[in-house]
Amino acid sequence: MLLWLFVFAVLLLSPSTTSYSGAAPQNDSTATLSRTIATLNLSDPLADLDLSLKRGDHRFIGINSYTCMAPGISDADYRLMRRFGLRCLDGTSDAIESKEHERLQEKASAYARTYNLELYRRITSGLVTE
After folding, report:
1. pLDDT of residue 122
2. Which residue has the higher pLDDT, 49 or 20?
3. Which of 24, 40, 72, 104 could be stapled to 117 by a disulfide with Cβ–Cβ 3.0 to 4.6 Å?
4. Which helix (H) or strand (E) holds 69?
5. Rounded distance, CA 30 to CA 45, Å?
6. Would you say residue 21 lies in a domain?
7. pTM for the full model?
8. Phi, psi of 55 (to 5 degrees)
9. Which H or E element spans position 64?
10. 49/44 Cα distance (integer angstroms)
11. Is there a domain that residue 85 lies in?
């Protein structure tokens, strides 16, 4: 029994053999969201909307939370989301992993809100149909 306590104490008090670079590890959702953000035109979401519409993609942009939600679109307009669809951005989540993930999540939400509000305007004014 004393031998086990001695071994445990030595292991506990000995320096770790793992190296630490000082950089915070990037979690899966942060890395995924970073890759997703790189595909978006953050400075001009409406240009992305125009490209999507030209490709025949009429879906709203969603952010994952408890469920996938479309920023800027109210629950009262849920029927439009069901009719036109919803594309959730990979890596978004209500479980924020780090400050970087939170920063990226905010960028994704702002992008989606601008995109969705303009898509909504075009749908309700008859400029976009199925």
Report:
1. 96
2. 49
3. 72
4. strand 68-69
5. 21
6. no
7. 0.76
8. -80, -5
9. strand 60-64
10. 9
11. yes
Helix H segments across 1-130? Answer: 2-13, 28-38, 45-54, 78-84, 99-124
- How far the first Cα of the chain sits from its last, in Å, is 75
Q: Show the tokens assigned to 85.
A: 């669809």
How many folded domains does the chain comprise?
1
The answer to whether 37 touches 107, Cβ cutoff 8 Å, is yes
Rounded Cα gap, residues 121 and 116, in angstroms:
8
The percent of residues in the chain predicted with pLDDT above 70, rounded, is 79
Tokens 């004393």 belong to residue: 2
Tokens of 112: 């989606």
Cβ–Cβ under 8 Å, residues 27 and 97: yes
Domain-embedded: residue 61: yes
Structure tokens at 68: 């996938």
Domain span at residue 70 reads 28-124
Yes or no: say if 89 and 61 are a contact pair by the CB < 8 Å rule: yes
The Cα 30–Cα 92 span in angstroms is: 8
- pLDDT > 70? residue 3: no
Helix (H) or strand (E) holding 87: strand 86-88
